[in-house]
Amino acid sequence: MIKKNLQPLALHVPEPKQRPGDAPDFSDVVVPPAGKLARPDSATPAADLKEYPYALIRVLDDNAHAVGPWDPRLAPDTMRKLLKDMMLTRAFDDRMFRAQRQGKTSFYMKSLGEEATSCAPALALADDDMVFPSYRQQGILISRGWPIPDMMNQIFSNKADRLKGRQLPIMYSARAASFFSISGNLATQMPQAVGWAMASAAKGDTRIAAAWCGEGSTAEGDFHSACMFATVYRAPVILNIINNQWAISSFAGFAGGEETTFAARALGYGVAGLRVDGNDPLAVYAATAWAAERARTNHGPTIIEHFTYRSEGHSTSDDPGAYRAAQAGSAWPLGDPVERLKVHLIGLGEWNEARHSALADELMETVKAAQKQAEANGILGHGLHQPLETMFEDIFEDEPWHLREQAAQLLEEDAVRRVEGQH
Amino acid sequence: MPRMNMIEAINSALNVALAQSPDVTILGEDVGYFGGVFRATAGLQKRHGKTRVFDTPITECGIIGVAVGMAAYGLRPVPEIQFADYIYPALDQLVSEAARLRYRSAGEFPMPITVRSPFGGGIFGGQTHSQSPEGVFTHVAGLKTVIPSNPYDAKGLLLAAIADNDPVIFFEPKRIYNGPFDGHYDTPTVPWAKVDDATAEVPEGHYTVPLGKARVVREGGDVTLLAYGTMVHVAGTAVAESGVDGEIIDLRTLIPLDIETIKASVKKTGRCVIVHEATRTGGFGAELSALVQERCFYHLEAPVQRVTGFDTPYPHSLEWAYFPGPVRIKRALDAVMKD
Ligand SMILES: Cc1ncc(C[n+]2csc(CCOP(=O)(O)OP(=O)(O)O)c2C)c(N)n1
Is residue B63 domain-shared with residue B25, that is, in the same domain? Predict the structure, then answer.
């Protein structure tokens, strides 16, 4: 019964501040000055880190100088590698997005503007630390030096694709790079990373694990299961939340972002939570290095929120112009990670415009050459690049009778198709 | 009469339902402002308001759990699961809760929930945008499962499902959203508006297609083909190409099943081929085959045949080798006609 003497209830449905037709406006994004935040010892109890989920770790200031205690003081060569990894990721994305548009594959997802959140953690972790990425962390594979043509073979589902054409483009798997098979189902990798880390700890290993998911995906139950196991077993794991503000058409408010930060999820679980400027490659490196040290010294898990922006569409199937303000990416107040690191290196006298554009050209050539090599193995189409019987391999270790029968049936069908002149 | 594609028909059904009952509520990932990744809910939030058509956090378990709570209050929620492949996190809320609440509360808490979800392959969507998990739900006591194969049925069945007082899983064959599919991947899709088919004519207003009633799509004397969704059209191609006089039955509703129409047809033809895209073992075809055998045994001239997807995850590049296309169906027709 509605009681007339009481105030009627009202349902709150979040709404982003701008929609198509509005000018992008990020005036409500609080950007604290770089360098002001203290860097606690990585063994500090989670209970004494309560301000960090609400702060923003920033190293590069407005003039791209590295300032404050979180400055990781990287050697110029290391920073140049980080810059190159991000630029290569960008060039790769650019070419593969275009390849999809040219009908060479079914699907692609770019990471434009978010490259630092993959490339910098990859550099701060050991190469054999196990990573459980989502679909936007191609930068990790690139940073770990994985061959570009191999990634492209996967994208084209061609005959050289190690994954036998089974997975949607960009759903890589690279065990040799300690890179877990990517799932299309959101957030499943989060508890898996915790389990890997628990196993490593139980065995007295020295390797840690790290996982990535978008802020939208933190709504899934799997994310919360991951936090629970991580805290209970003090798992040596880093749970990265890439808060790029959008989950397809849903702004972060639909993942709980109106009331608190994503890093603050850590507080309820008694886990260390850091919030970092995701477009500041040095800050991302520093936060990861802190969390890795904490994990490696048995002080438990860290949740890191990377505050960044998805500058382009969700995927090749998406048109962001239908739900958010145009040009929002270029108005993002935290700038561009490639540009910021470039200016920093130039400021140090370790880089210059000429070298930068030469590198950009060189990387584009690298990517083009790799694409040519990969396309020689085929592009996605109706060419059925994998031998048909491979469809039945790897379901189980051994093929049971019913799969053998079905494989035989498929080969018979294929013979009929060939006679009838169709695939 | 206006011609609509399946998306437009579904959108129209939702619009009619929202206008008709203040209790109908639509929720799901990206369904609000944007109108859904397939545009099925386009314009509905604007017309009916943010508290009746809204975006949700990305948690399928949460979406269905919340729908159960809304139904307990007295609403008629119509949640969308963006792809059927993402319905698994919601299984506990569907199987242990929505399906059983009427029973365990002895009727105190009926669950008039209609879960819409695009399903099926044929769009190069890889293993997480292609599955046909209807068999998971037909196996659960207390869930109805409905699958339309054309725009007219999509609207009429959806309105019937929303009006139904029990939970309904409403799977939409996304391969035929825009136009029917003959099963040959290289035939360009002809939009519903341009096909010579009365099922693309969709009334603007309210009407229903009753749950539990199959449709005889093509009458024939040689063999009964049981199909639903996309495969109704593919079965049509196979029959045309084989020259067999097949009687094609579009089941439309898997639970409750129109057993009378099936029985009458199989008793007439004496032969039965069951076609679905889902994996074979333990699929709904196994149930159909058992029913036909139990009820029409003495009329059968040949063993019942199942034509299905293989028992593998849905592959990406080998999609068209996996898909149960006309060749696979014709071989089954040949086999039943031989006996
Ligand atoms: C279990 C599950 N539900 C829904 C989807 C569909 N889906 C794919 S990506 C996506 C948005 C994810 O957004 P976010 O986690 O913020 O990551 P981002 O894409 O922004 O990197 C959705 C809803 C899915 N892949 N898996």
Answer: yes
Taking the CA of residue A263 and the nearest CA in chain B, the distance in Å comes to: 17
Cβ distance B220 to B246 under 8 Å? yes
Burial A304-324 (b: 16+ CB within 10 A, else e): bbbbbbbbbbbbbebebeebb
The reply to whether A335 and A267 lie within a common domain is yes
Pick from A248, A310, A316 the residue to mutate for probing ligand 1's pocket: most ligand atoms within 8 Å of its CB: A248
> At B308, which CATH number?
3.40.50.920
> Which residues of chain A make contact with B317, given a CB cutoff of 8 A?
157-158, 161, 165-166, 380, 384-386
Residues 301-320 of chain B whose Cβ lies under 8 A from any Cβ of chain A? 310-313, 315-318, 320
**Same domain for B155 and B289?**
no
**Domain extent at residue B122:** 3-183+188-192
Hey, of A250, A251, A414, which one would you mutate to test binding to chain B, going by the most B CBs within 10 A of its CB? Answer: A250
Task: Give how many domains chain B has, as a whole number.
Answer: 2
Say what the ipTM of the complex is.
Answer: 0.97
Spell out where A6-163 has E strands.
Answer: 130-132
Residue A171 lies in a domain: yes
- The packing angle between helices A281-296 and A116-124, to 10°, is 40
Give the pLDDT of chain B (339 residues) as one tens digit per residue. 899 999 999 999 999 999 999 999 999 999 999 999 999 999 999 999 999 999 999 999 999 999 999 999 999 999 999 999 999 999 999 999 999 999 999 999 999 999 999 999 999 999 999 999 999 999 999 999 999 999 999 999 999 999 999 999 999 999 999 999 999 998 999 999 999 999 999 999 999 999 999 999 999 999 999 999 999 999 999 999 999 999 999 999 999 999 999 999 999 999 999 999 999 999 999 999 999 999 999 999 999 999 999 999 999 999 999 999 999 999 999 999 998
The whole-model pTM stands at 0.97
Nearest to B181 by CA among B169, B170, B195: B195
